[in-house]
From TrEMBL:
Signal sequence segment: none
Protein family per UniProt: Belongs to the gluconokinase GntK/GntV family.
Protein known as: Gluconokinase
GO biological process, one term: carbohydrate metabolic process
Gene Ontology MF terms in the entry: ATP binding; gluconokinase activity
Statement: the UniProt record of this protein carries the keyword ATP-binding: yes
Gene3D superfamilies: P-loop containing nucleotide triphosphate hydrolases
SUPFAM superfamilies cross-referenced by the UniProt entry: P-loop containing nucleoside triphosphate hydrolases
Pathway(s) it belongs to: Carbohydrate acid metabolism; D-gluconate degradation
Assigned keywords, A-Z: ATP-binding, Kinase, Nucleotide-binding, Transferase
EC nos: 2.7.1.12
PANTHER family reported for this sequence: GLUCONOKINASE-RELATED
Length: 190
């Protein structure tokens, strides 16, 4: 079902410790739009597995991604902008999220109202952040799963994913993302 009313979705993606939730929240505030944290959509069974250091399987991930797809679709159809923080590590996972756009065609062009921004940082920086977060009891994802996420991360240049340096301070990151996604006074074709 195609829709003439079209919102926008910006997915802040990357491995654990990249700063997805922090940057996603700040970007949503700057854009005066809704923010969704994909972690909030995980069933408890997924959180328990990750907390125990067990990587998720496709059977764990796909239903979770489909729930996120539905949440994005709801915003897009209502003409709203939404920011989602989500690992979205593989192209096939991003395809599920892109498909929230009822007008999206899987024709290799990746033209969709769902756009992706990769927060990129070196493994050492990410591990340090994860260790700090774990020591503070702030997240269910242990640092020992970082390597499996880095190995799973798949970036295809044809997808035109915006890539930003996750070691910049948060406000610089938000400004950089806004510059990449919006021209002064006029949004780039999202």
């Amino acid at each position: 079902m195609a829709s003439d009313i079209q919102g926008k979705a910006i997915v802040i993606m990357g491995v654990s410790g990249a700063g997805k939730s922090t940057i996603g929240e700040l970007l949503a505030k700057a854009l005066d739009c809704s923010f969704l944290d994909a972690d909030d959509f995980h069933p408890q069974s997924n959180k328990d597995k990750m907390h125990q250091g067990i990587p998720l399987t496709e059977e764990d991930r796909i239903p979770w991604l489909e729930i996120l797809q539905d949440a994005l679709r709801e915003s897009l159809i209502s003409g709203k902008t939404v920011v989602l923080s989500c690992s979205a590590l593989q192209k096939r996972y991003r395809e599920i999220l892109r498909s929230a756009d009822c007008n999206y065609h899987h024709d290799g062009s990746f033209k969709s109202a769902v756009k992706f921004v990769l927060l990129d940082a070196k493994a050492e920086v990410l591990a340090e952040r994860l260790d700090k977060r774990a020591a503070e009891g702030k997240h269910f994802m242990p640092a020992k799963l970082l390597q499996s996420q880095l190995e799973l991360l798949q970036i295809d240049d044809s997808e035109a994913i915006c890539k930003v340096d996750a070691t910049l301070n948060p406000q610089e990151l938000v400004n950089s993302i806004k510059t990449m996604i919006f021209r002064p006074g006029k949004p780039i074709a999202l």
